[in-house]
Amino acid sequence: MSDQLFLDNQYCFSLYSAANAVTRAYRPLLKELDLTYPQYLVMLVLWQHGRQRVSDLGNALYLDSGTLTPLLKRLELKNLIERTRSKEDERARDINLTQRGVELQQQAMDIPSTLACSITLSREELDQLKQLCNKLL
Amino acid sequence: MSDQLFLDNQYCFSLYSAANAVTRAYRPLLKELDLTYPQYLVMLVLWQHGRQRVSDLGNALYLDSGTLTPLLKRLELKNLIERTRSKEDERARDINLTQRGVELQQQAMDIPSTLACSITLSREELDQLKQLCNKLL
DNA sequence: TGATATTGTATTGTGTACAATATAATTTTA
DNA sequence: TAAAATTATATTGTACACAATACAATATCA
């Protein structure tokens, strides 16, 4: 009976702890760029796809405006992005990289390989993990 | 080059999003018990092992006192636990279930099976996911 | 076209996470 | 045994997550 409560725990708790551990692993690397992990994710989307609306970022990252609005304001304060009103739809915000935001990508280049070194999983295991997580979503 | 930044993203981002999705899935179920997911995790440890110190809970859940102290105070306000000083060591807190805390386990019995229904992974996939997450930790 | 509904963000409030620091009790050691 | 180090928890400050709500711009339709 409490058995059930314990077993179930294992699956989701592992996921929860591993996700916390990942953002902990990123923290020291991202600190050099003065970014948090969710801020880094936003920058990744912008580096790859350019101008995005808040809703585009929300769809890409599975986050809502309550999370993104203050996060984007912090990126704006750091002069990494601009938040302008869309010309087509005055309700929407266009999120654009500033020059400084574009340039930051250079500094981020080393992060993936550095992080890979501190991870004990093989490429195959990482692929498997990714697939399972995506199936769960 | 930005390729690298994108690929890396996939692995850790999947984990991060899946973990968020899991706490979202738990939310409506736990709302009936007036618990959050991390509060539920604390209760699971207490239901299974009884009296714990803050540091025991921290070790079990990979969380520190900055997270646990306010969380435990909320559980205390809800009359689910007591936070007494340890007799052996006055620095330590003994976290004990109240009668109401013990009784809440009955109401939690259905959660694992209910949640399992809303998850699309097979038992084998869940086992695999758990193993990979634990290896990552 | 004017009322109604929808859409895109923003705001508010609650609850984590965690670094950095503080504080008090216990242990160690000179 | 008194000072120094260690240990256990608490506090402070910053930054997510997200539900609930608000609000203004746009779209729909009677």
**What is the CA-CA span between the terminal residues of chain A?**
28 Å
Structural class of chain A: mainly alpha
Q: What is the overall number of helices of chain A? A: 7
Work out the helicity level of chain A: 55-70%
Overall number of domains of chain A? 1
* Low-confidence runs of chain A: none
User: Looking at the structure, what is the overall shape of chain A?
Assistant: globular
CATH class membership of chain A = Mainly Alpha
Oligomer: homodimer
Name the helix and strand elements of chain A from N-terminus to C-terminus, one letter apiece: HHEHHEEHHH
Radius of gyration of chain A (CA) equals 18 Å
Q: Write out the strand line-up for the largest beta sheet of chain A, numbering strands in chain order.
A: 1-3-2
Number of strands of chain A: 3
Description:
The structure is a homodimer of 137-residue chains. Chain A is built from seven helices and three strands. Chain A is mainly α. Chain A has a three-stranded antiparallel sheet. At the A-B interface, helix 1, helix 2, helix 6 and helix 7 of A face helix 1, helix 2, helix 6 and helix 7 of B.
